[in-house]
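agent> fetching stored inputs for the FE2/S2 (inorganic) cluster docking request
agent> found them:
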Amino acid sequence: MPSIRFMPMDIVVTSETGASILETALAHDIDLEHACGGFCACTTCHVVVAEGVDSLTEMDFDEEDKLDEVEGVTLRSRLGCQARLGTEDIVVNVPPKPY
Ligand code: FES
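agent> prediction call returned; pasting tokens
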């Protein structure tokens, strides 16, 4: 089972292939914002994948479009509700929110 290390909290949790980063966070009481409820309609679940980005599901157009709205977006940015786990462990940074 793949794991996710959430930074800067430094919390490691195991999940399942096919689960989203957001679903995994919420299942373990990790505070990852999700204003739209996981429907790719906001950007509050933005994370930066420090390790394992290639093991995640590919980004679709809607996610890419939403990420364009994120201040400080990087090449390793993903929306936590859209990126689903493969079989490898990943590390994600949860950026501080500007509010
Ligand atoms: S929770 Fe709104 S885009 Fe992910």
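agent> quick read of the result: Residues 34-36, 38, 40-45, 66, 79-81 surround FE2/S2 (inorganic) cluster (CB under 6 Å).
agent> awaiting further instructions
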